[in-house]
Amino acid sequence: MTRAFIFDLDGTLADTLESLVFSVKATLREMDLDEITDEQCRHFVGNGARYLMDHAIRAAGDPEGERLEEAMEVYGCIFDENCTYHVTPYAGMEDVLRRLKEKGIRLAVLSNKPHRQTVKVVEAVFGKELFDCAQGQQEGVKRKPDPAGIYRILEKLGVSVEDCVYVGDSEVDLETGKRAGVRTVSVGWGFRTRKELEDAGAGRILERTEELLEYEEP
């Protein structure tokens, strides 16, 4: 039976794209680099802050990524102040989560966003009581698509791989779930197009948050 849902954050639980785009563009301006498009930012999101900024500065006039450490420092300060900027949960998500919670299903978040900002966003958008665990990128735990984060959360929750559903909106999430050996669900309302998900190997792609309730049982 299903005893736990682990969710990706950006593009899965909440629309956080404006916060990321705003912070990336502010960082590039602070560094006197060229501006990049919102669409470029969308493609760079999903693999953690370091990946995001490495690709952003290369696209903005630092092709060798020589200023990455500077970018990480600037971005870290800007994003910490703006990680909740215009962030909203996807339509119906809060109701779905509460319905799962009422059935005794454990809820967790696993994000490649830095841990501090992951917790900050989750608590700002969903409060402190809804999720049993919120885990972002941190030292000592390999980032997705490595399955280490899923295993760590399952250990905390006391739930087996067989009793877990992992939900995400990207090719990174698909690979993470596959490598962890958990049932993996793709959603079509996030930061990747349906074609991008299909090309990454997604089967069924959910289009409405209410469809998540179909996975209460295996």
Features:
single chain; alpha/beta; six-stranded parallel β-sheet; two-stranded antiparallel sheet; 9 helices; globular
Structure commentary:
With 218 residues, the protein is of the alpha/beta class. Helices cover 44% and strands 16% of the residues. The protein is built from 9 helices and 8 strands. It has helices at residues 17-30, 38-44, 49-59, 68-82, 93-102, 115-126, 148-157, 171-180, 194-199, and strands at residues 4-7, 14-15, 88-89, 106-114, 133-137, 164-168, 183-187, 205-206. The strands form 2 sheets. It has a 6-stranded parallel beta sheet with strand order 5-4-1-6-7-8, with helices on both faces. Strands 2-3 form a two-stranded antiparallel ribbon. Helix 3 (49-59) crosses helix 4. The termini are close together.
Rg measurement, Å: 17 Å
What oligomeric arrangement do these chains adopt?
Answer: single chain
- Describe the sheet with the most strands: 6 strands, parallel
pLDDT below 50 for ≥5 consecutive residues: which ranges?
Answer: none
Relative helix content: 40-55%
Tally of individual helices: 9
Overall average residue pLDDT:
96
Distance between the termini: 6 Å
Content-based structural category: alpha/beta
Instruction: Provide the β-strand percentage band.
Output: 15-25%
Strand count: 8
Q: Which strand order does the major sheet show?
A: 5-4-1-6-7-8
Order of helices and strands: EEHHHHEHEHEHEHEHE
Which of globular, elongated, flat, extended, rod-shaped describes the shape? globular
